[in-house]
Write a structure and sequence with these properties.
CATH superfamily of the largest domain in chain B: P-loop containing nucleotide triphosphate hydrolases
Distance between the termini of chain B: 40 Å
Radius of gyration of chain B: 18 Å
Number of helices of chain B: 13
Number of helices of chain A: 11
Structural class of chain B: alpha/beta
Number of domains of chain B: 2
Shape of chain B: globular
CATH architecture of the largest domain in chain B: 3-Layer(aba) Sandwich
Order of helices and strands of chain A: HHHHEEHHHHHHH
CATH topology of the largest domain in chain B: Rossmann fold
Strand content of chain A: under 5%
Helix content of chain A: over 70%
Oligomer: heterodimer
CATH class of chain A: Mainly Alpha
Distance between the termini of chain A: 36 Å
Number of strands of chain B: 10
Radius of gyration of chain A: 19 Å
Largest sheet of chain B: 6 strands, mixed
Number of strands of chain A: 2
Order of helices and strands of chain B: HEEEHEEHEHHHEHEHEEHHHHH
Strand order of the largest sheet of chain B: 6-7-8-3-9-10
Helix content of chain B: 40-55%
Largest interface: A-B, 19 and 32 residues
Chain lengths: 289, 299
């Protein structure tokens, strides 16, 4: 029964990983951008919330109504004015620019907030849990985070499939030149994809802040989990990313059951194993959907 | 339909000898002046000047490497010229990207169709109606469906585009370009890989589109000269990035310089070549490029 409990906990944790990774997947799927600053963007979300919560008197649980739109605008601008010019001069340049962005974000946070860790106080959600049976208890916070992850992923999927702009984003992801030829402004659409990526990772950052202490230098660690979820799922596939997140989550909780150190190592081992067996992931696709 | 094309040819042949300026009194929808584009030492356009009148059907022929597809790239915005000016409807468009040019009214098809494979046929066309023609909601849906009807794709509307065969892909390519409501349509080798009856079907669609919507000008690149002779008002022969001959189809085909390029493939000039319709071989047999290469080798 404790194994079942661990698996449930792992799935819940996996939701967070997936939320974290879907933006990476989207940016890679649409514009071939590997955003090395993705983890730092999530961390920056926590710190923006730390500043905004006392200033706006909005409770931590609802602060996303400010942070997520702010990050979406930020993502749009970063793509339009930072990444797009670098894309025009090659993939390596873009990689370096995102790496630079990562370093800048990290150091700005260190400068402003010092190396102190922060978390978001979401009140009783943290401590209370749902006692399913004597062996299985599910923390409400984890449940909320998984719920948010699923809602965000479904909303993202619906946006891409059902809306005019979403359809255009898929078109430029599939064949940029052909999309331009039917009138699609790819620069705008790339920026829309970046806005979505930044919005989702802001959600992930806030979830992370509610879940645990976050330090300014934590970004790359989460980036690693995000990458692994994306690669396990198959590059560019949103549902694959969710599956990848769940696999990593379960590996983490099962590993820590055996040994606390194994908890942080097993997901990486699983990732290496998948990479060796299925190098293109479980749901290999070139473009989004 | 073939007759229709032939009639049009004779109608215009009087006025169009000598090239664009002579074609009726209409203002040109497209004007290229002094366009030069080089890839290394190869010039795909060498001081190229060309103009297309509203509603005109211009055929473009030339050997492989003459710069036919590059010409389309320069007009549609995929390629940036090293020198020269592209004007559309009297305005210079050299600084505009491909998407803006599309919204101005330049539609283009690719020789090898490039549908958005994971989307349905309908979505492919809807996208073009929305982004290219700037239509909203109902209007976009209505327009997209009308285009599917016109191009005979209506019953395939909900099929994923990736599942289509070559003929249907070519139809979709045409449908998507038409859905952007072009004033100028660039057709790149519509006939390549298709059988004669299939080519005739597509010509029928183009015919209907160009007569239906008023003044749709068409620039049509084709290896298979027969297809062009039956449809266009005017013919241009390109060679190594410049205009070798320009005028009524019959007079261009009679031009000794054009004949020299086509020497060795007289059969092709007179029209039908056996063996077309077998995709794959088609390209070789229906291809005037071989003769062109032979001519190039002699130079």
């Amino acid at each position: 029964m404790t194994i079942l409990n661990d698996i449930i906990q792992g799935i819940l944790l996996g939701g967070l990983f997936a939320l974290f990774a879907c933006g990476l997947s989207l940016m890679f799927g649409v514009m071939d951008v590997i955003n090395l600053a993705h983890g730092d963007v999530a961390v920056a979300g926590v710190y923006l919330a730390v500043v905004l919560i006392p200033a706006s008197h909005i409770p931590a649980l609802w602060i996303f109504v400010l942070v997520v739109p702010a990050f979406m605008i930020g993502g749009y601008l970063v793509q339009r004015y930072l990444l797009q010019p670098s894309l025009d001069s090659g993939a390596i340049t873009t990689l370096l620019v995102t790496f630079g962005l990562s370093i800048v974000l990290e150091n700005v946070l260190l400068e402003v907030f010092t190396a102190n860790s922060y978390s978001l106080n979401v009140g009783s959600l943290v401590s209370s849990s749902w006692q399913v049976s004597s062996q299985i208890s599910v923390p409400y916070l984890d449940l909320v985070i998984l719920g948010v992850a699923i809602v965000v992923l479904v909303a993202l999927q619906l946006f891409l499939v059902r809306t005019r702009t979403g359809r255009l984003v898929r078109a430029v992801a599939d064949d940029r030149e052909a999309a331009e030829l039917v009138g699609a402004n790819y620069r705008h659409l790339f920026a829309v994809a970046a806005a979505l990526a930044f919005g989702t990772v802001a959600f992930a950052g806030l979830a992370l802040g509610a879940y645990t202490q976050v330090s300014p230098t934590a970004g790359p660690t989460y980036l690693l989990y995000g990458f692994e979820a994306v690669v396990i799922g198959g590059l560019g596939s949103l549902w694959g990313t969710l599956a990848g997140g769940l696999v990593l989550g379960v590996a983490t909780t099962l590993g820590s059951q055996v040994d606390p150190n194994l908890g942080s190592m097993l997901p990486h081992l699983v990732f290496l194993f998948v990479l060796a067996v299925r190098p293109r992931g479980f749901f290999p696709k070139r473009a989004v959907t | 339909m073939q007759n229709l094309g032939a009639d049009r040819t004779t109608d215009n042949s009087v006025g169009s000898v000598g090239g664009a300026q002579a074609v009726s009194g209409k203002s040109p929808i497209l004007e290229l002046s002094g366009i030069t584009k080089r890839f290394g030492r190869v010039a795909v356009a060498d001081d190229l000047s060309l103009s297309v009148a509203r509603g005109e059907r211009l055929g473009v022929i030339g050997p492989n490497g003459a710069g036919k597809t590059s010409l389309f790239g320069l007009i549609s915005g995929d390629l940036e010229p090293d020198a020269g000016q592209v004007s559309f409807d009297g305005h210079p468009i050299g600084k505009l990207d491909a998407a803006k040019r599309c919204r101005l009214g330049i539609g283009r098809t690719y020789q090898v169709p490039r549908p958005f494979e994971k989307m349905t046929v309908f979505e492919n066309v809807l996208l073009a109606a929305q982004a290219g023609a700037g239509l909203e909601k109902r209007a976009a849906h209505g327009h997209a469906f009308a285009i599917l009807e016109e191009t005979g794709l209506a019953r395939l509307a909900n099929q994923p585009a990736g599942a289509l065969g070559l003929l249907q892909r070519k139809r979709l390519e045409l449908a998507r370009a038409l859905a952007t409501r072009p004033v100028l349509l660039l057709l790149d080798e519509v006939a390549a890989g298709l059988t004669d009856p299939e080519v005739d079907e597509l010509i029928g669609i183009v015919d209907a589109a160009s007569t239906g919507e008023g003044e749709l000008a068409i620039v049509w690149v084709e290896h298979v000269v027969r297809t062009l002779l039956a449809t266009v008002d005017r013919l241009v022969c390109l060679d190594r990035g410049h205009v070798l001959a320009d005028g009524a189809p019959a007079s261009v085909m009679a031009d000794p310089r054009v004949k020299e390029i086509y020497l060795g493939s007289e059969m092709e000039l007179s029209g039908h070549v056996g063996g077309r319709g077998r995709p794959g071989e088609n390209e070789e047999i229906g291809d005037i490029g071989q003769a062109g290469q032979a001519a190039a080798a002699r130079r």
